[in-house]
Amino acid sequence: MKPMQHTITVLVENKPGVLARVSSLFARRGFNIESLAVSVTDDPTMSRMTIVVLGDDSTLDQINKQTNKLIDVIRVIDYSEVPILDRELAMIKVAAENSARAEIMQIVDIFHAKIIDISPATFTVEVTGNTDKVDAIERLLEPFGIKEMVRTGKIAIARGTHTAIS
Amino acid sequence: MVQSLIDHGVEIIFGLPGGQAIPIYDALYDRKDLINVLMRHEQGAAHAADGYARATGKVGVCLATSGPGATNLVTGLATAYMDSIPVLAITGQVRTTALGKDAFQEADITGISLPVTKHNYLVKDAKDLPRVIAEAMYVASTGRPGPVLVDIPIDVSFAKFDYEPVTEVNIRSYSPIQGESITEENLNAAAKMIAESERPVLYAGGGVVLAGASEELLALSEKTHILVANTLLGKGAIPETHPHSLGMLGMHGTAYANHAVDKCDLLIAVGARFDDRVTGKLAAFAKRAKVIHIDIDAAEVAKTVTPDISIVGDCKRVLSLLLDKVEPRGETEWNKQIKQWQQDFPLHCPSDDSQLYAQCIIERLWEHTKGEAIIVTDVGQHQMFTALHYKVTKPRRFLSSGGLGTMGYGFPAAIGAAMGCPDLPVFAICGDGGFQMTLQELAPSLEYKVPVKIVLLNNRYLGMVRQWQELFYNKRYSGVNIEFQPDFKMLAEAYGCVGIRIDKMSEVDAAIEKAMEINDRPVILDFHTAREENVFPMIPAGESIEQMMVNRPK
Ligand SMILES: Cc1cc2nc3c(=O)[nH]c(=O)nc-3n(C[C@H](O)[C@H](O)[C@H](O)COP(=O)(O)OP(=O)(O)OC[C@H]3O[C@@H](n4cnc5c(N)ncnc54)[C@H](O)[C@@H]3O)c2cc1C
Ligand SMILES: Cc1ncc(C[n+]2csc(CCOP(=O)(O)OP(=O)(O)O)c2C)c(N)n1
Ligand SMILES: [Mg+2]
Known about the structure:
Shape of chain A: elongated
Radius of gyration of chain B: 24 Å
Low-confidence stretches of chain A: none
CATH architecture of the largest domain in chain B: 3-Layer(aba) Sandwich
Number of domains of chain A: 2
Helix content of chain B: 25-40%
Number of helices of chain B: 23
Mean pLDDT of chain B: 97
Largest sheet of chain A: 5 strands, antiparallel
CATH superfamily of the largest domain in chain A: ACT domain
Oligomer: heterodimer
Strand order of the largest sheet of chain B: 2-1-3-4-6-5
Structural class of chain B: alpha/beta
Number of domains of chain B: 3
CATH class of the largest domain in chain A: Alpha Beta
CATH superfamily of the largest domain in chain B: Thiamin diphosphate (ThDP)-binding fold, Pyr/PP domains
Radius of gyration of chain A: 19 Å
Number of strands of chain A: 9
Low-confidence stretches of chain B: none
Bound molecules: flavin-adenine dinucleotide, thiamine diphosphate, magnesium ion
CATH architecture of the largest domain in chain A: 2-Layer Sandwich
Largest interface: A-B, 19 and 21 residues
Strand content of chain B: 15-25%
């Protein structure tokens, strides 16, 4: 079976060392992490991880079960089956010579992105969106010369009334 | 902390102190109700706790200081982890303010032990100790059991606080029956699949022993006349002397157990995890069979073999429910076929009397103990000879490091077993290689009058490796000759124990009898066995039953 990208959400105890437990498990069992985003939830005793993994269905099944077994893991939610909203944030520092400025501003506009910093030679662009959208603006800005870029991991939430904490 | 342990029923601790553990040892000084066994190496302490746990079913506890003391526990923890054994390890740690500063004898033991423990804790506030010990005991012993480590910085073990016992544990992120799927639907489907099968086999693992589900398993087998093959860790799940037992399956399993699994049309795995030593080449394993998998750990389901029906839950419960659902059935053609295999491929002992053979010694040992002793093995050929030739009659009477295959396990684990079950004779069956890895524990055995009988099957080789080199590396014996070794009789005597050397078959019975009479100290029975004997049957690693060797290839 072909490896596919899957997005899973892991609710964990907000305790020191929990990230190490999860990442050690992934490393040890040979699961590939494409991206990882962690932050505390509205309940300060809980953290939420969004992990994008690469693997076939049986790997995903093992990832879910093995992760669930960790004592500090409260829940693992596999988002393969439900419609989700997912977002990434990127900040892109792009070369912006006088002649290029107008064109870059147009791209930024079309993508509903923002220019959040300007210097005589560069723009820093902030963009949020799903992975495809961030990839697309990156590709379009590439020809101008990307000086530096930073991207968060993906975060995800289910559409509709469905919640992770229930 | 010490009070917490006692409140949780702990009666015995195996350990060795050091600077950061002195406050804990200081607290033990006043407690006459907690036996504190001073081992001579922390690895020995961890294995002893493991042996105690396997033999008694209770949590085994070991204790070490920070840094090197803690790292010396790691092999023992990994051993317990692989075989799902409930062990609690307590380690001293440098004071909280020194953590992470490369302080003297600091080792990040929670980090190091992460992949070999079910869970671990670093306690930073003394007031958390009663809760953490309660949680640790609970996590170690429930669900799929496993080792748990609690790391205690010295300022925490020094601190004074008002102790209140914690009796109830509530961990929102942990449920021992996570993923349970004991449903009517599943049970009915399993019963139906069993009814429809023509050639079913039960494959019983360590989970049956851990669950105490022997009675239920035997009842199921007797009601349906389905025969039972057991794994190494499933020895004693049903009495191997019972006509329904096929003995061990797998790489060194009996030919009849392996034939039965190969030709069966339904394999019912109970508390077993399809280890590669059992399956060999996966594509060829039980290739004609449907599979029912009963296991408490949802993650074991479809990890290597995808079952047709899985029932996640405690197998004691599952088996007793299933027992009511299955229809009784009598002996069939299939039972006859298996009996035929048992006649065609019997286990045998070499019959020439000019040399001592391990197989024959083990069969004599069985005669003397009638399969009722606690047998603890080390790892190697002697382990497999024992697995094949010593028919275990009760659960928790055969202890062996299966998953990690830890040389040096046998003797200290036997000490733990003997201290946990003082009324049973305990034999540690060791190779000459493995015994030398942990023989320093002779000293505490003498001190605490632990009458472990060490059956040393001394072939002056790292025999199991030599066997592989003989069969698969053109007899290029590299790094396996251990002729250069102590005189074990004198070694025993140097420790104040009893040593007997045996060279001839005619001396075997007397030696075993003598050993069984001694009940205040260890005995080493140094059997000088045939050097180049091999364990057969053998299915080479990663191969199928087609490649099974039942004898030395010509
Ligand atoms: C040199 C050497 C050779 C070996 N050769 C062989 C061989 O030929 N044959 C062989 O069988 N082994 C052999 N082994 C041992 C092998 O490596 C494995 O350790 C062994 O096969 C695993 O046994 P198991 O499947 O019973 O699993 P265990 O490791 O005992 O696992 C127990 C299973 O039961 C489950 N469980 C636990 N509690 C419960 C419960 N209450 N209810 C339900 N399920 C539960 C667990 O989740 C787990 O899946 C050998 C080892 C060595 C060192
Ligand atoms: C700690 C450890 N080191 C190495 C091995 C690899 N190994 C497996 S069996 C074996 C030989 C054991 O020799 P011995 O104890 O004499 O037993 P025998 O096989 O001769 O009965 C070795 C080296 C191991 N299992 N454990
Ligand atoms: Mg040897």
